[in-house]
Amino acid sequence: MVINSDGTQMGVMSKRAAIELAYSQNLDLLCVAAKAKPPVCKVLDYGKYHFQQQKKEKEAKKKQHVVEIKSLRLSPIIDTHDFETKVKHAKNWIESGMKVRIDMRFRGRMMTRQEVGREIMNNFIQEMAEIAIVEKKPSLEGNTMSTVLAPKKK
Which terminal residue of the chain, N or C, has fewer Cβ atoms less than 10 Å from its own Cβ? Predict the structure, then answer.
């Protein structure tokens, strides 16, 4: 099945006849549906077609929304003012649509007091509860406890 450059169907023809038709119009023959019965080919300017395809892909890429993940590091021995400052930063990021990853690193003898770190992590999550949801629950991986908070759907 051959489709002309202006969109009219030329009908079913042999491969050689289709190529000659395209050649006589100084255009290319492009197979658009190879698995169809019969295969569908179109007579067109391939350079122009390729350029339009690239333009469509670029436009689609512009419309994509990439979610950025910001990272915060807490400590099991964090002071209240430092804690409030980190909460404030995290709230600003969440409100602007970003995800926030909170890490808490245990060093040396702090590993024996993981419950203190877990309590601080839970306090942080409760402070953020009104605007964020927990995407990944706090979990210990090696000597680092981490969690991911995402903005609530509106």
Answer: C
